[in-house]
């Protein structure tokens, strides 16, 4: 299997149930091998990022979505660890503030999109506004459909103005989430990660799976695709996201700006 098998560009035939969260299609067969692979790819990506930053003409937005404990933070630490912080920014969206609620739901998101030469990682994103809001009935089906249309238009506008968008759904199973939550409860050093609200949201597991399936199907396009990342294995999750980014940079082929001939005549005294 290759990355194209997990790349969703249209929703007509997409079913989340067709993807197993437990699978490890890109694994080398051992945790140590996969960890070494992530480290190797991360170093290559770091070099590409330097060129991308110097090129200063294009923008890259990576969107990480997934259920609680799916590994969004772990993906940031594992895949982007070698990146130069000068050209990388990670944005985590929390519950909207009163000021944000007084505006349209995309207002706060648009303010955080990447500048030229910058890579921005959204740890959760504008998709929360068609996920938790729908699961809890805060918006109806008609409003949800309007938001799908608005999100498609928003992302298309970003793509047409130089932003490459990569959307990753970190796909974990209900059993794996249970184990990770139990680990957080059982280890005092992980208590800081635990939020009792995670248990409340877990009761809506099936509703969230349906909401994710609908959102992915409604917003996957050739310009702004979704990738389904089997994430029960943390190491495989990182391998796959790293490989996705390697493919993106291989396609973008960033180049340093052309040299300035006039500098050859300068003398530093």
TrEMBL record:
<dbReference type="Pfam" id="PF03976">
    <property type="entry name" value="PPK2"/>
</dbReference>
<keyword id="KW-0808">Transferase</keyword>
<protein>
    <submittedName>
        <fullName>Polyphosphate:AMP phosphotransferase</fullName>
    </submittedName>
</protein>
<dbReference type="GO" id="GO:0008976">
    <property type="term" value="F:polyphosphate kinase activity"/>
</dbReference>
<dbReference type="InterPro" id="IPR022300">
    <property type="entry name" value="PPK2-rel_1"/>
</dbReference>
<dbReference type="InterPro" id="IPR016898">
    <property type="entry name" value="Polyphosphate_phosphotransfera"/>
</dbReference>
<feature type="domain" description="Polyphosphate kinase-2-related">
    <location>
        <begin position="35"/>
        <end position="246"/>
    </location>
</feature>
<dbReference type="GO" id="GO:0006797">
    <property type="term" value="P:polyphosphate metabolic process"/>
</dbReference>
<dbReference type="InterPro" id="IPR022488">
    <property type="entry name" value="PPK2-related"/>
</dbReference>
<dbReference type="InterPro" id="IPR027417">
    <property type="entry name" value="P-loop_NTPase"/>
</dbReference>
<keyword id="KW-0418">Kinase</keyword>
<comment type="similarity">
    <text>Belongs to the polyphosphate kinase 2 (PPK2) family. Class I subfamily.</text>
</comment>
């Amino acid at each position: 299997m290759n990355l194209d098998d997990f790349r969703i560009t249209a929703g007509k035939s997409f079913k989340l149930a067709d993807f197993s969260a437990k699978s490890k299609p890109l694994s080398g067969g051992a945790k140590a091998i996969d960890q070494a692979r992530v480290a190797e790819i991360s170093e290559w990506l770091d070099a590409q990022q330097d060129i991308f930053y110097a090129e200063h003409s294009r923008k890259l937005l990576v969107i990480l979505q997934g259920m609680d404990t799916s590994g969004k933070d772990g993906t940031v630490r594992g895949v982007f660890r070698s990146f130069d912080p000068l050209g990388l920014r990670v944005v985590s969206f929390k519950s909207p503030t009163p000021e944000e609620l007084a505006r349209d739901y995309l207002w706060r998101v648009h303010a955080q999109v990447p500048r030229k030469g910058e890579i921005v990682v959204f740890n959760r994103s504008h998709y929360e506004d068609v996920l938790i809001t729908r699961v809890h009935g805060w918006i109806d089906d008609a409003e949800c459909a309007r938001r799908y249309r608005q999100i498609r238009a928003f992302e298309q506008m970003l793509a047409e103005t130089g932003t490459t968008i990569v959307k990753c759904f970190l796909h974990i199973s209900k059993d794996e989430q249970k184990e990770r939550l139990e680990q957080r409860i059982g280890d005092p050093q992980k208590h800081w990660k635990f939020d009792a609200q995670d248990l409340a949201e877990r009761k809506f597991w099936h509703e969230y799976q349906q909401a994710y399936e609908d959102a992915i199907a409604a917003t996957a396009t050739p310009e702004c695709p979704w990738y389904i990342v089997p994430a029960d294995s943390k190491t495989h999750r990182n391998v796959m996201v790293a490989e996705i980014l390697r493919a993106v940079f291989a396609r973008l082929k960033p180049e340093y700006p052309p040299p300035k001939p006039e500098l050859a005549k300068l003398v530093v005294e």
